[in-house]
Design brief:
The complex is a heterodimer. By secondary structure, chain A is mainly β. Chain A has strands spanning 5-7, 10-14, 19-24, 29-37, 43-50, 55-58, 61-66, 71-76, 85-93, 100-102, 106-111. In chain A, the strands form two sheets. In chain A, strands 2, 4, 5, 9, 10 and 11 form a six-stranded mixed β-sheet that branches. In chain A, strands 1-3-8-7-6 form a five-stranded antiparallel β-sheet, with no helix packed on it. Chain B has strands at 4-7, 10-13, 19-25, 31-37, 43-51, 54-57, 64-66, 76-78, 87-94, 107-108, 112-116. Chain B is mainly beta. Chain B starts with a strand and ends with a strand. In chain B, the strands form two sheets. In chain B, strands 2, 4, 5, 6, 9, 10 and 11 form a seven-stranded mixed β-sheet that branches. Chain B has a four-stranded antiparallel β-sheet with strand order 1-3-8-7, with no helix packed on it. The chains are: A mainly beta, B mainly beta. The interface between A and B is medium-sized, with 25 and 29 residues.
Chain lengths: 112, 117
């Protein structure tokens, strides 16, 4: 089974700066998702990007997908202290399609 | 409001004891999932169900059991065979059931933190 790997493991930025985190995976996928998790809470769905899409936007979030490099990036613009959380990518393998595999996450700290 | 409810929020288990974690959803989602989260290891799939009365093992099913008697409910039992059950357990649901369909993402519950005492 494959698992997305986020990079960096931890990121600390000042409020107002942009935050970029990356996800790499191993095999062909149908969909890639990004989730946010505040400490001790459940995950919140941010964006889903399908394998035939290259870029999606949602508010201050921008996600790109490069299937040739098997990688995705999540950009948070004009970060806020409330963006402090862990961010996970999740991918489903083309063959199975029923299971999503989560990475170990990027811990983002936004300093006010 | 539609969503997923997990209970209890905190659970303590004695050695050799079985415990059951509750997960209920009112989103009319076909599929439900149980994940385990350990520090630094992300989420790992325990079991999932795409239709009532059917479920599939995930990557770490040993020591766990589930049932899906109702569409809304997917309880997880952590048995005494699970040797290291201390973890954060997350339940999720999605629209992708046994007939496939368009996937829009998971909705997660707020989790149950299980500790062995």
């Amino acid at each position: 089974s494959q698992q997305g790997e986020e990079d960096p493991q931890a990121l600390s930025i000042q409020e107002g700066e942009n935050a970029t985190m990356n996800c790499s995976y191993k095999t062909s996928i149908n969909n890639l998702q990004w989730y946010r998790q505040n400490s001790g809470r459940g995950l919140v769905h941010l964006i889903l990007i399908r394998s035939n899409e290259r870029e999606k936007h949602s508010g201050r979030l921008r996600v790109t997908l490069d299937t040739s490099k098997k990688s995705s990036s999540l950009l948070i613009t004009a970060s806020r202290a409330a963006d402090t959380a862990s961010y996970f990518c999740a991918t489903d393998e083309t063959d199975t399609g029923n299971q999503f595999y989560f990475g170990t996450g990027t811990s983002l700290t936004v300093i006010p | 409001d539609g969503g997923i409810t997990q209970s209890p929020k905190y659970l303590f288990r004695k050695e050799g004891q079985n415990v059951t974690l509750s997960c209920e959803q009112n989103l009319n989602h076909d599929a439900m999932y149980w994940y385990r989260q350990d520090p630094g290891q992300g989420l790992r799939l325990i079991y999932y169900s795409q239709i009532v009365n059917d479920f599939q093992k995930g990557d770490i099913a040993e020591g766990y059991s589930v049932s899906r008697e109702k569409k809304e409910s997917f309880p997880l039992t952590v048995t005494s065979a699970q040797k290291n059950p201390t973890a954060f357990y997350l339940c999720a649901s999605s629209t992708r059931g046994h007939t496939g369909g368009i996937f829009y993402g998971y909705t997660f519950g707020s989790g149950t933190r299980l500790t062995v005492v």
